[in-house]
Design goal:
about 160 residues, alpha+beta, Thrombin, subunit H, two-stranded antiparallel sheet, 8 strands, about 30% helix, about 35% strand
């Protein structure tokens, strides 16, 4: 009996999601599709989710400076793994463009100066795949990525 109730609840949830999506304008549906494709795992086996990325990825807000074609920019890293970062940006940059990044991770004093290339670009930012990293850089980024996110209370 619990399986039937669970299936009904899954069906009810699915139907409600479909109704909401049907009411969205096409532009919003396209944005939702892109978001879900970027965030969801590639495949699911049984109850085990197989993540499409090979390394832990951590949502964050880390300020950085970056250079593309000799031009300097400031921005924020919104997520990071040992393979790359997502950088928030209003500007669109071409895929395959080389980029130099400079940032420090919270809790670490070392400044990371890394090279990479843009592997995708969208309306809210772009993804950078790092060039080969030194062992200590991989270790630092993985340690940061695997940490539980800290929640801070802002005292005014």
């Amino acid at each position: 009996m619990p399986d039937t109730a669970q299936k009904l609840s899954k069906t009810a949830v699915r139907n409600q999601i479909l109704k909401l999506v049907d009411r969205m304008p096409e532009e919003m549906q396209a944005k939702l599709l892109k978001f879900l494709q970027a965030k969801l795992p590639r495949r699911i086996r049984g109850n085990l989710v197989v993540e499409k990325r090979a390394d832990f990825r951590r949502d964050c807000l880390v300020s950085l400076e970056y250079r593309i074609d000799g031009r300097s920019f400031e921005g924020f890293i919104l997520d990071i793994s040992a393979f790359g970062v997502f950088i928030e940006s209003d500007g669109k940059f071409p895929v395959e463009k080389r980029v130099q990044l400079s940032f420090s991770l919270p809790g670490y004093t070392a400044q990371l100066n890394l090279g990479g290339k843009i592997v995708w670009s969208g309306s809210q930012g772009f993804g950078v795949k790092f060039n080969s990293l030194a062992r200590n850089q991989v270790k630092m980024i993985r340690a940061f990525s695997e940490q539980e996110a800290s929640v801070y209370t802002i005292v005014s």
